[in-house]
Write a structure and sequence with these properties.
mainly alpha, single chain
Length: 164
């Protein structure tokens, strides 16, 4: 083999090492604590998104909790007046601690305000212990009407003969 073939082989080995290092960085293993945080974040946004009939995107493999919070705040910020044109690419945890509850409240409010008269909307979520909870929002008469008595009017005669 010539010297240039050895140089070419060494250059290719160096490229392979670089690519393997990039793959190792992008597919890092998450810790148990990070997995719990990701689950809690998804739970919060899943609960709020259920009012709109949406589910949040699942966290990407190796994604950090702070990155996932930024992603979901960006995804649901369109429902807020204050943050709909904001970008959360470089938001830190302190900023997200302030913004996230406001975004979640706005998402819930948007979901409840979309209910039309004569309509019930189911909000399904788990309570953290594995039980599935269904909460209904909207016009109660939709489900109560079959059980209600028909409206009645009563006329009470008065002693003076006036029927009013």
């Amino acid at each position: 083999m010539s010297l240039s073939a050895y140089q070419e082989a060494e250059r290719l080995r160096a490229q392979i090492r670089d690519l393997e290092q990039q793959m190792a960085r992008s597919t890092r293993q998450i810790t148990g604590q990070e997995a719990d945080e990701l689950r809690d974040i998804q739970h919060r946004f899943d609960h709020a998104g259920a009012t709109l009939g949406e589910r949040p995107n699942a966290p990407a493999i190796g994604q950090k909790p702070i990155e996932y919070r930024r992603q979901l705040c960006s995804q649901y910020a369109k429902h807020t007046d204050q943050y709909k044109n904001s970008r959360f690419d470089f938001a830190d945890a302190a900023m997200l601690d302030v913004v996230e509850p406001q975004v979640l409240a706005a998402v819930r409010q948007a979901g409840y305000s979309n209910v039309k008269p004569g309509q019930l909307v189911a909000e399904r979520f788990d309570d953290g212990s594995g039980r599935m909870i269904t909460r209904w929002h909207g016009d109660n008469s939709v489900w109560m009407a079959p059980f209600m008595a028909p409206p009645m009017t009563v006329t009470i005669p008065r002693p003076d003969g006036n029927r009013k």
